TrEMBL record:
Annotated InterPro entries: GPCR_Rhodpsn, GPCR_Rhodpsn_7TM, Olfact_rcpt
Transmembrane feature ranges: 29-52, 64-87, 107-126, 146-172, 204-227, 247-267, 279-298
Name the record gives this protein: Olfactory receptor
Keyword Membrane: yes
Top-level taxonomic group: Eukaryota
Originating gene: LOC111145508
UniProt organism field: Enhydra lutris kenyoni (northern sea otter)
Function: Putative odorant or sperm cell receptor.
Length: 325
């Protein structure tokens, strides 16, 4: 419960996103100059993967369908968060004023896209499990219709969770003003401004973390453990190496995503330091989305070959499959 009297509780009409407005201007400009190229590279890398997955016939497989979907989510995620963060580095001290509806929309989109990505990574793990552990029935199981159903389920799950969390938080009154000590309207940064009994909202947030982080990660680790056992037991050295590279790429992305998200959100409000959270947010907003296309393209011969053909204008020849058929 809040120690503020109920007469000071208010339904804030606007919020001020403080970001790094308290830092020296020279340091903020330096961060802007460093993060802007990362932002542009993130957009370019993910749009490149999406374009190749759509246009390249050799990549019209379930694995690259999900990879293209993941790149689409990353582009949307980056567009929702990064421009506002970069603009904050150039504005005068005092932060950015946003309307209550804008803050709620930003939070909702962030949760929807992040939740969809969590579920999508689990769907990608299922695809690799079926491709490597059930190769004879893979084409019958992983049909185009199933791929679209899995994608729709991931997006619907993330959106429903986002709607529930955002509605639960913005139903609370706010007694600490609208100063959001973060680079965007993140859930914990807004929730700490609320008054009254917010235990229900905290429990809902922790339950969402369990649903979107712990359970999918456990399924991913179990799937890839089984995949690695199969890889080590069948096929020749070349086939094992190709399959292992594919699994290693997917597992690296999953560990990065779930690791950052768990460190940020699977904690009670009482143990948080919002200044530290702001610094960590620079990693998962600017660096992690950039690593995804780098990991997939550098370790994947299919994507490299498709990119070379796109640059040279050649038609695809022999396709080097990254999985064991």
């Amino acid at each position: 419960m809040s120690s503020w009297p109920e007469s000071n509780w208010t339904a804030a009409r606007e919020f001020v996103i403080l970001g790094f407005s308290g830092w020296p201007q020279g340091l903020r400009l330096l961060l802007f100059a460093f993060l802007l190229p990362l932002y542009l590279a993130t957009l370019a890398g993910n749009l490149l993967i999406l374009g190749l997955a759509i246009l390249e016939p050799a990549l019209r497989t379930p694995m690259y369908f999900f990879l293209g979907a993941l790149s689409t989510v990353e582009v949307a995620y980056t567009l929702v968060l990064t421009p506002h963060m970069l603009a904050g580095f150039l504005l005068p001290r005092g932060g950015q004023v946003v309307a209550r509806a804008t803050c709620a929309a930003q939070m909702g989109l962030f949760v929807a896209l992040g939740g969809s990505e969590c579920l999508l990574l689990a769907a990608m793990a299922l695809d690799r499990y079926l491709a490597i552990c059930r190769p004879l029935s893979y084409t019958q199981l992983m049909t185009t219709g199933l791929c679209w159903c899995l994608l729709a389920s991931c997006c619907a799950g993330g959106s429903i969770l986002a709607l529930g969390l955002t509605t639960a938080i913005f139903q609370l009154p706010f007694c600490r003003g609208g100063l959001v000590n973060h680079v965007f309207c993140d859930l914990p940064a807004v929730l700490v401004l609320a008054c009254g009994n917010r235990q229900l909202q905290e429990r809902v947030l922790l339950a969402a973390c369990l649903l979107l982080l712990v359970l999918p990660l456990a399924l991913i680790l179990l799937s890839y453990t089984r995949v690695l056992v199969v890889i080590l037991g069948v096929g020749g050295p070349a086939g094992r190496r190709k399959a292992f590279n594919t699994v290693a790429s997917h597992l690296t992305v999953a560990v990065l995503h779930y690791g950052c998200a768990t460190a940020m959100y699977a904690r009670p409000l009482s143990s948080r330091d919002l200044e530290e959270d702001k610094l960590v947010s620079l990693i998962y907003i600017s660096l992690t989305p950039l690593l995804y296309p780098a990991i997939y393209t550098l370790r994947n011969r299919d994507v490299q070959g498709a990119l070379q053909r796109a640059v040279s204008g050649r038609t695809p020849g022999t396709v080097h499959q990254a999985d064991i058929n």
